């Protein structure tokens, strides 16, 4: 039989880590997950193609900031990709994955078998959240990667000018791009917790996904209303577009820290709600 | 006392809003038994099983499984329990084997190094080795049901809780499940099997409980349940008038009968041979006589007040 050497290796791993790896592997063995990642990667590619083959050449001053930088340094395709994906596409995909966590298992009926195994409700909830975090990383990376590949293929990679007027070389530009990917990932953590909570409320995954995505949109709409500026610091999406701060020279870390704190608060709050709900819930699906 | 019971519930109750799905249930399932948990659709079997497995918390009452209280001791009880609840459920995009591996990984007491062997043995036991690498969405209903059983058999279990395990199976599959349950019981595993079809489990059960609208109406060893059923005698004769007089004189209470046939409850009746002798002496032409212990099926129809398989 196939009880060969490599298979016995995971024995050393704690059981929770093994369940986490199983969770991640189930997530990435779904066709849907890859479709979303490919779609995310396609966004910067499309932007790159549009800029490269637009008859008028890259616009200056109009459109997303830095669009004109693309022609100097192709890595900026990734930067623009992140900025374009942050308000809708990234939240959309994270909403789908987070909304599916518990409700998806419930609708398949596999939730009852996991709990009877017994996976443990708290353990399962934590592992589901961590797997969603892995997806957040993958989603941001997909945009970065799509941007880098399109940039390298379509544009020269030279020195680029930052907001401050300083110029940086390709190596540092790549580092900044990865940092921005990290910022985008952190920005999605609160939303992932909201999705997890929504997912404990229903056995219809689409419902949980829709609720999560709608909340992401509502948060941004409220963030755009000046009359509500007292509310803005508390909004999930308040710092989402601050990822451009990572292009300043020197880097301004203020918004990164504030964002991390805000997201942590959302994770704590909605994580607690999800815990309260899921540990007491009757599993009837 | 408790240690000898695999499952014990006291006053177990579950209400959904105004509806009482399970009503003050007192179950006692002896260790080593094959326990038939019978009742029409909607009588509360699945809800009871969900409470035993800690999926649903009781509104009132307690449940003890393998001597420990549920759901409090869930983490120590459930690794020793295999279960099939309300039909099998799998990730359709994973193979049968990958599905079992995932279930096995979810059990913190199952060691990783022996997992491939456990999974292969469970698949073999239900006759699915050949389909191990097929995606579950390509499985037939019967194959899924068997894969569900394989999931329940991943580890050596002290108790198997099987909720309608023959649902969706053809007669051959049903026979296979029955013989599987028998062989598990021979190994000393307690089997708690629910069904709305008495005939499907009658042959393998040592004990049974009957549920009607959430209430327990009978419980005990199968022989006792059978014994409690009322016997009937049936006489086929063209001379019904004469025969009826004889039976009445013998103290039997006649029931409505078809032409040419008389039936009566046999409680307190003289032995069959005496009845026949009396009939013949009186000149009735006896063409047929039976003193039937009613089938368990009839007994259950009596208990549940309706035929089996009748939806609520
Ligand atoms: N989630 C639920 N909400 C409301 N009522 C329910 C729910 N689940 C089951 N019931 C009710 O509880 C009763 C028992 O159901 P169930 O335990 O599934 O019966 P069985 O398994 O014997 O067919 C039924 O009347 C059913 O309508
Ligand atoms: Mg049922």
Defining key terms:
heterodimer; A: 285 residues; mainly alpha; two-stranded antiparallel ribbon; 10 helices; 2 strands; 1% strand; globular; B: 312 residues; alpha/beta; Rossmann fold; Alpha-Beta Plaits; six-stranded mixed sheet; 15 strands; 26% strand; elongated; disordered C terminus; binds adenosine-5'-diphosphate; binds magnesium ion
Plain-language structure description:
The complex is a heterodimer of chains A (285) and B (312). The radius of gyration of chain A is 21 Å and the shape is globular. In chain A, strands 1-2 form a two-stranded antiparallel sheet. Chain A has helices at residues 5-8, 15-28, 31-53, 76-85, 89-108, 110-116, 121-154, 170-200, 205-224, 254-280; strands spanning 160-161, 167-168. Chain A has 285 residues and is mostly helical. In chain A, helix 3 (31-53) packs across helix 4, helix 3 (31-53) packs antiparallel against helix 5 and helix 7 (121-154) packs antiparallel against helix 8. Chain A has ten helices and two strands; from the N terminus they run H-H-H-H-H-H-H-E-E-H-H-H. Chain A has one domain (11-280). Chain B has 312 residues and is α/β, with parallel strands linked by helices. Chain B folds into two domains: 2-220, Rossmann fold, CATH 3.40.50.300; 230-293, ACT domain (Alpha-Beta Plaits), CATH 3.30.70.260. In chain B, 33% of the residues lie in helices and 26% in strands. Chain B is built from eleven helices and 15 strands. In chain B, the strands form three sheets. Chain B has a six-stranded mixed sheet with strand order 7-8-9-4-10-11, sandwiched between helices. The longest helix of chain B is centred in the middle third of the chain and has 16 residues, at 171-186. The model of chain B is unreliable at 308-312 (pLDDT under 50). The chains are: A mainly alpha (285), B alpha/beta (312). The interface between A and B is large, with 35 and 39 residues. Bound molecules: adenosine-5'-diphosphate and magnesium ion. Magnesium ion (MG) binds next to helix 1 of chain B. Magnesium ion is lined by residues 45-46, 86, 163 of chain B.
């Amino acid at each position: 039989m196939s009880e060969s050497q490599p298979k016995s290796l995971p024995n050393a791993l704690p059981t929770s880590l093994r369940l986490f790896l199983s969770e991640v592997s189930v997530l990435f063995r779904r066709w849907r997950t890859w479709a979303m990642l490919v779609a995310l990667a396609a966004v910067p590619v499309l932007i790159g193609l549009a800029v490269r083959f637009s008859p008028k050449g890259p616009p200056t001053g109009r459109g997303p900031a830095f669009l004109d930088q693309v022609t100097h340094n192709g890595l900026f395709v990734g930067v623009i990709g992140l900025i374009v994906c942050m308000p809708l596409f990234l939240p959309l995909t994270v909403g789908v994955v987070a909304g599916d966590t518990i409700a998806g298992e419930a609708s398949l009926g596999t939730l009852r078998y996991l709990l009877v195994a017994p996976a443990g409700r708290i353990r399962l909830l934590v592992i589901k959240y961590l797997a969603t975090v892995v997806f957040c990383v993958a989603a941001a990376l997909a945009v970065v990667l799509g941007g880098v590949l399109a940039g390298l293929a379509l544009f020269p990679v030279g020195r680029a000018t930052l907001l401050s007027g300083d110029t940086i070389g390709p190596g540092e530009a790549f580092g900044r791009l990865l940092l921005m990917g990290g910022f985008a990932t952190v920005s999605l953590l609160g939303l992932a917790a909201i999705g997890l909570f929504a997912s404990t409320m229903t056995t219809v995954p689409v419902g949980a996904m829709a609720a999560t995505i709608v909340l992401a949109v509502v948060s941004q709409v409220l963030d755009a209303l000046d009359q509500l500026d007292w509310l803005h610091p508390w909004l999930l999406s308040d710092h989402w577009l601050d990822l451009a701060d990572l292009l300043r020279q020197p880097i301004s870390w203020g918004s990164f820290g504030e964002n991390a704190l805000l997201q942590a608060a959302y994770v704590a709050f909605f994580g607690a709600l999800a815990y309260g709900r899921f540990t007491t819930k009757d599993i009837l699906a | 006392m408790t240690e000898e019971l695999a499952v014990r519930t006291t006053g177990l109750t579950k209400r959904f809003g105004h509806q009482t799905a399970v009503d003050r249930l007192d179950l006692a399932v002896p260790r080593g038994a094959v326990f038939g948990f019978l009742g029409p659709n909607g009588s509360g079997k699945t809800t009871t099983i969900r409470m035993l497995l800690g999926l649903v918390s009781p509104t009132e009452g307690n449940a003890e499984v393998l001597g420990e209280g549920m759901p409090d001791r869930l983490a120590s009880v459930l690794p020793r329990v295999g279960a099939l609840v309300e039909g099998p459920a799998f990730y359709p995009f994973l193979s049968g084997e990958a599905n079992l591996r995932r279930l096995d990984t979810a059990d913190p007491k199952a060691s990783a190094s022996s997992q491939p062997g456990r999974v292969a043995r469970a698949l073999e036991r239900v006759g699915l080795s050949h389909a191990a690498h097929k995606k579950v969405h390509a499985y037939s209903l019967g194959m899924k049901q068997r894969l569900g059983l394989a999931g329940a058999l991943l580890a050596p279990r002290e108790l198997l809780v099987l909720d309608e395990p023959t649902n969706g199976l053809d007669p051959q599959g049903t026979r296979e499940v029955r013989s599987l349950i028998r062989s598990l019981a021979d190994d000393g595993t307690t089997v708690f099997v629910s069904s709305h079809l008495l005939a499907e489990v009658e042959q393998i059960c040592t004990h049974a409980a009957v549920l009607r609208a959430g209430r327990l109406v009978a419980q005990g060893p199968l022989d006792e349940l059978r014994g409690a059923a009322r016997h009937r005698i049936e006489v086929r004769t063209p001379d019904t008038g004469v025969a009826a007089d004889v039976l009445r004189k013998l103290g039997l209470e006649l029931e409505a009968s078809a032409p040419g046939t008389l039936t009566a409850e046999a409680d307190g009746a003289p032995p069959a041979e005496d009845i026949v002798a009396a009939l013949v002496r009186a000149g009735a032409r006896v063409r047929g006589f039976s003193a039937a212990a009613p089938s368990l099926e009839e007994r259950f129809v009596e208990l549940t007040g309706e035929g089996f398989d009748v939806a609520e």
